[in-house]
Automatic annotation (TrEMBL):
Segments forming domain Acyl-CoA dehydrogenase/oxidase N-terminal: 8-119
Lineage: Bacteria, Bacillati, Bacillota, Clostridia, Eubacteriales
Acyl-CoA oxidase/dehydrogenase middle domain location: 124-218
Organism listed in the record: Sulfobacillus benefaciens
Protein name per Swiss-Prot or TrEMBL: Acyl-CoA dehydrogenase
Family as reported in the entry's similarity comment: Belongs to the acyl-CoA dehydrogenase family.
PROSITE patterns: ACYL_COA_DH_1, ACYL_COA_DH_2
InterPro entries in the record: Acyl-CoA_DH_CS, Acyl-CoA_Oxase/DH_mid-dom, Acyl-CoA_Oxase/DH_mid-dom_sf, AcylCo_DH-like_C, AcylCo_DH/oxidase_C, AcylCoA_DH/ox_N, AcylCoA_DH/ox_N_sf, AcylCoA_DH/oxidase_NM_dom_sf
Domain Acyl-CoA dehydrogenase/oxidase C-terminal, residue spans: 231-381
Keyword Magnesium included in the entry's annotation: no
C-alpha cells in the first residue's frame, strides 16, 4: 500500500523505528498520560537514536535522512496510540527545530540545533495567542527595536512543551502597522528575565503532552537571536512551516485511525454477543468497511501532499486538503471504533477512549478544518475564473 511512495530503505527504517518505539516508548505511555508531559529522559532517549534530527544533516548531529524518512517516524510514533507523546516529540523537531535549520544563522544552529537534536534541550514554537489562532496576522505580541536587540512583550496560548521548554521560537510583530508583513521570529531562552510560564492547561486529549500559556514581560532579546530576516516570519511559517505541519497532522490522523481500526477489527473477531462474534454481524462488518474506505481516502490525500512536498513542488493546497479530510476522518473512525467496543470502549481501561479524545484536536490544531476549506476554496474559485477567461476569449 505504501510501495509507490516509500522505498526499501524507508521500509527498513520503519522496522527499526517500530521496534524502538514498542520497546522503549510504549511502556511509558501510561506514565506520560498520568503526569501530563513527556519526561526529559524520553526526549534524550529518542535524541540518542537520532530520531529528533532525521531530516537534518550529519554536520549538525542529524541523521541526514529525507522528508519521507521523517514521515515514517511520524507514522510509527502516532501508531503507538498516544497522540500526546507524538505531539510533544514532533513539536520539537517538525515545528520548532525546522525553522532554526531553514533560516537560522550558523551561530544559532551551533548553539541551539544540536542540543535540540540530541534531546538535551526541549523546544517549543509559540505563535497562537488568546485572540489569534488560525489568524496568525492578528497576533499582538510585539518585539520593539532597541539598541542591540529587541524588547519582547506579550503572551502566547496553547503552547505544546510550554511548561518545560528550554528554548521557544516566538512569532512577534516587529512592524505592527504592516500586518502579516510585519511579523518576525525570535529564539527565546526560557531562563531570560521576563520569561514566565502561566497556567498549565488541562486538555481533553493529547494529555501526555504539556500545554501552557507563556508570558513575555519585557524580555530583552539580543540582535543575533532574530531568526532569519526581520519581518519575514509570516512567510517562513506559511510558505513552508505550516504546510509541513499540516501534512504531519494528516499523517498523525491516518496513523491514529489505522490503530483504531486495527483494534476494532481484532475486538470484533474476539468479542461474542448472542452466541456469535461481533464480526459475524453484517452491521459490524459493514461499519469496518466504511472505516477502511475512509482511511484509504485520507491516506491517499496525505501521501499525495507528502509526495509534492518531498519534490519541492507547491503542496499548500494538497496539504490543506489532506489536513481537512484526514482530521475529520480520524474523528469518524475513532468514534466508530469506540462504538464497536461498546461499554468497554467508554472505560478508561481500554485505549479506545484515548484514541477518541486524541482525534478531536486533529481537526482543530495546525489549522481548523474550516480554514483548510477556505484555502482550498480560494484555489477552486481561482481555477474557475481561469476557465471562464478561456471560454470568453475563444
Amino acid at each position: 500500500m505504501r510501495s509507490w511512495l516509500f522505498q526499501e530503505e524507508h521500509d527498513l527504517f520503519r522496522r527499526t523505528v517500530r521496534h524502538f518505539l514498542e520497546q522503549e516508548i510504549a511502556p511509558a505511555i501510561d506514565l506520560c498520560e498520568t503526569r501530563g508531559s513527556v519526561p526529559r529522559e524520553i526526549f534524550r532517549k529518542v535524541g540518542q537514536q537520532g530520531y529528533l534530527g532525521i531530516p537534518f544533516p550529519e554536520s549538525v548531529g542529524g541523521l541526514g535522512g529525507d522528508i519521507l524518512s521523517q514521515a515514517v517516524w511520524i507514522e510509527e510514533l502516532c501508531r503507538l496510540g498516544s497522540g500526546g507523546i507524538a505531539a510533544a516529540l514532533t513539536a520539537q523537531t517538525v515545528i520548532a527545530l525546522t525553522p532554526i535549520w531553514r533560516w537560522g544563522s550558523e551561530m544559532q544552529k551551533q548553539q541551539y540545533l544540536n542540543p535540540g537534536i540530541r534531546g538535551d534541550k526541549i523546544f517549543a514554537l509559540a505563535v497562537t495567542e488568546p485572540d489569534a489562532g488560525s489568524d496568525v496576522a492578528a497576533i499582538r505580541t510585539t518585539a520593539y527595536k532597541k539598541p542591540g536587540g529587541y524588547l519582547l512583550k506579550g503572551s502566547k496560548l496553547f503552547i505544546t512543551n510550554g511548561t518545560q521548554a528550554d528554548v521557544v521560537v516566538v512569532a512577534a510583530k516587529t512592524s505592527p502597522d504592516k500586518g502579516r508583513k510585519g511579523i518576525s521570529l525570535f529564539l527565546v531562552d526560557s531562563r531570560w528575565a521576563g520569561f514566565r510560564v502561566g497556567r498549565r492547561l488541562e486538555k481533553l486529549g493529547w494529555r501526555a503532552s504539556d500545554t501552557a500559556e507563556l508570558f513575555f514581560d519585557g524580555i530583552m532579546i539580543p540582535q543575533d537571536h532574530l531568526l532569519g530576516e526581520c519581518n519575514r516570519g509570516f512567510y517562513y511559517l506559511i510558505d513552508e512551516g505550516f504546510v509541513y505541519e499540516r501534512i504531519a497532522m494528516a499523517l498523525s490522523a491516518v496513523s491514529l485511525a489505522e490503530r483504531a481500526l486495527s483494534d476494532a477489527s481484532r475486538y470484533a473477531q474476539e468479542r461474542e454477543q448472542f452466541g456469535r462474534h461481533l464480526a459475524e454481524f453484517q452491521v459490524i462488518r459493514h461499519k469496518l468497511v466504511d472505516m477502511a474506505l475512509d482511511l484509504v481516502k485520507a491516506r491517499r490525500l496525505t501521501y499525495r501532499a507528502l509526495y509534492l512536498f518531498a519534490k519541492d513542488d507547491d503542496a499548500k493546497i494538497a496539504a490543506a486538503m489532506a489536513k481537512a479530510y484526514a482530521g475529520e476522518m480520524a474523528r469518524r473512525v475513532t468514534d466508530d471504533a469506540l462504538q464497536i467496543f461498546g461499554g468497554n470502549g467508554y472505560m478508561m481501561d481500554y485505549p479506545l477512549q484515548r484514541y477518541w479524545r486524541d482525534a478531536r484536536i486533529l481537526s482543530i490544531g495546525g489549522g481548523a478544518t474550516e480554514v483548510m476549506y477556505d484555502i482550498v476554496a480560494k484555489s477552486v474559485l481561482q481555477e474557475g475564473r481561469k476557465t471562464d477567461g478561456g471560454r470568453d476569449g475563444s
